[in-house]
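Self-study notes.
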Amino acid sequence: MASIHINDIPSKVEHYVSRHRLRDAFKLLRHYSSHLGDWRITDEIDRMEESYSMMLRYATQGAVDPERDEMYSSIVRKIYAMLDRISRQISKPKSSNMYFSTVRYEEMQAGDTVGSLMKNYKTASNEASPYNMINASSAQMSERMMAKEDLEKRIFNKVWTLYPVSSDDDAALREAFESPVLPDYFKDMLI
């Protein structure tokens, strides 16, 4: 393992998977995850490999398993998902590109969820509506529009860097798309 550079590991794992050499892929994936020192990731890799071992054991015993192909495909999908997850975690602390800078910023905003930001946006959008701006001073109007625009940027960044998407996040996004009060340009931005 020492002879493989960390940047070459993802392509090597993909090579092993494409050649149906999942044992080698698991070994390399475990080595790749060791750079993170996260026992939860190692535990997930162990569970995937255990599922693969059980599938092979049943196959060598001659057991008929009509779901074998689906199980194999599921394991391969999990390997690719884990590879992406590890690559993302390894790249995050040292990358200077805008995406990872935004990821780091969003992670510091621990209390903000897609749902809470959407709730704040609906309030800000309502306050910036023409009806509610009628009696506002120009300073209040400017402040309300800035608050709305700031929330649009925050929501965009949150959605852009969201990984993985939770069921609560998914529900908040679906609700936003179905909302008749949110502007179309905002929905376009979310897409």
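Second protein, same conventions, sequence then structure:
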Amino acid sequence: MQGILYEESSVLTFALITFVMGGWTAWRTGRAAAESWSGLGVLAAYVALLGVAIRFIHHALFEGTFLSLHYYLVDTAILMVFAYAGYRFTRTRQMTTQYYWLYRKTSPFSWVPK
């Protein structure tokens, strides 16, 4: 997998930066976009900027390449999964709490009309 998903010498380094640090930040970004009732376009723009920040952390701390389109897209795709999950989780809570007479929660990430 080294060379395809990550360029560091250890998968643990990649997981720490991208999944733990970036994933948590992306989750909180998704929640913030949902709480401000922003659309998915705004969320995508935030995650694109977050992808640049994660690439910079890889570069600054572990001597990864900063301007690599391949690794930027890999990192950003992973971050987008976390951000969308945070967005849907929060939006589900919003819809079922604020419009409780219209919707009921079916899972942590979805709702249906009553």
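Instructor comment on the second fold: The helical segments are 11-35, 40-62, 69-98.
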